[in-house]
């Protein structure tokens, strides 16, 4: 039996896509090697506290606005399937999320084959054949990999194999009592681990070749979150710990049972520095595991071979019919937006579902019609930017699109921006593309430094210089960018003021159409 869709992985992305396919009556099956959904979160993060926020009390009554502050719920028509009903903790326990995913799978009725480990994937005559560990085979016209980044990334360091691994080490702090510890990596897993060992270890060094980047400054959530940065205090306040900016050149076992590490500092010209430790933990991140693919259908990899390379449709650039869902989608916006995280990729997966329907069934992107007048178009845009959770969460990646042809306007929501510019929606004489963006200079500025000049709130004349999140509307004439309009930033993210937001946007639309 050749199915239309085969999804590998029953994590949040696989379940999100499966629920949409189930709702629409599509022919699909999900294969999951674990005994239940969300196996990844049954083990990670190792210290069992999520860093995806769970804001239960928002003051909003609109479910769409609540999703702006809810980073864990999947998209569903069922009002009971919200993670905020499972925990009131702002940084909730990972076990609560595993319980939520199990309920989501049960209530949506998604079809999953648990205990099914994929060991080999081939493709012939436009059909994928997937073999599992029990000798069974599964076939489909389209294969969607929702496996996440499941394989530890191993940098080319001689002796790296001597280090304990984040995915398998014992995180019990007691075993590190009075020891010197080196943690390789400067991401959240590294600092999460360092924070967990502060009370027991004698000395902790966190090492990596790049500077520590703080998420509150860069707006990229994969950079160090405040919830994991207590370790920085212990370094700067001289408590025997340190952050080392440099490259680990080699690791050797010593006769005493410890480790000799050669480190090359990034900021100085001194020769290699020899350092000694009792324990070394590798927190170097993860990568996509492409080993199950036959050579003839193995997807091309990028970014140090950590992610599959994808088109704007989330399809492999070299294997037709092979798609990617979930955190793998971040190849399209690496370290720029939120596809690496649930509150981002839940919308990208919904966009993928719409792309798949368009290709398989020639189903157009969902749309509603408007009168092609500047006032009507501006009002529709204002209403969406003040309510949409997708544009809010997927800043700079998803946008709403208003196509205008004569006296008819068509409004399409939550389209990947690259998909639009690649012609995925077809031609249009006039097209307005609306998204939310931070200003180009948002990262270098310190938002807590009162000496750093900022654009005044609701300043229409300087809206294009806004550094904080704000709406941007671009006008394309016959596919060519013809004009750009920035709406003035607003502290409460309420872009609804008549003179600051509505009138300038209406004037821009009128000018473009004239």
- Total strands: the figure is 24
Radius of gyration: 25 Å
Structural class: alpha/beta
The end-to-end distance, rounded to whole angstroms, is 55 Å
- Indicate the overall shape: globular
Number of helices: 11
Reported for the largest beta sheet, the result is:
7 strands, mixed
What percent strand?
A: 25-35%
Report the mean per-residue pLDDT as an integer: 94
Low-confidence stretches: none
What percent of the residues sit in helical stretches (DSSP H or I)?
Answer: 10-25%
Structure characterization notes:
This protein has 514 residues and is α/β, with parallel strands linked by helices. Helix content is 21%, strand content 26%. It has eleven helices and 24 strands. The strands form five sheets. Strands 1, 2, 3, 4, 5, 6 and 18 form a seven-stranded mixed β-sheet that branches. Strands 8-14-9-10-11-12-13 form a seven-stranded mixed β-sheet. Strands 19-21-20-22-23-24 form a six-stranded antiparallel β-sheet.
What's this model, at a glance?
The protein is 21% helix and 26% strand. It is an alpha/beta fold. Helix 1 (12-23) packs parallel to helix 3 (94-108), helix 1 (12-23) runs parallel beside helix 7 and helix 8 packs across helix 11 (498-513).
List the helices and strands and how they pair.
Elements: E1 2-8, H1 12-23, E2 28-31, H2 63-66, H3 94-108, E3 112-113, E4 118-124, E5 127-132, E6 137-145, E7 151-152, E8 164-165, E9 180-184, H4 188-197, E10 203-208, H5 215-218, H6 230-236, E11 242-253, E12 259-265, E13 273-277, E14 279-282, E15 286-287, E16 301-302, E17 307-308, E18 322-324, H7 342-361, E19 367-371, H8 374-385, H9 389-393, E20 398-405, E21 408-416, H10 417-421, E22 430-437, E23 470-477, E24 480-486, H11 498-513
Parallel strand pairs: 1-2, 1-6, 2-3, 6-18, 8-14, 9-10, 9-14, 10-11
Antiparallel strand pairs: 4-5, 5-6, 7-15, 11-12, 12-13, 16-17, 19-21, 20-21, 20-22, 22-23, 23-24
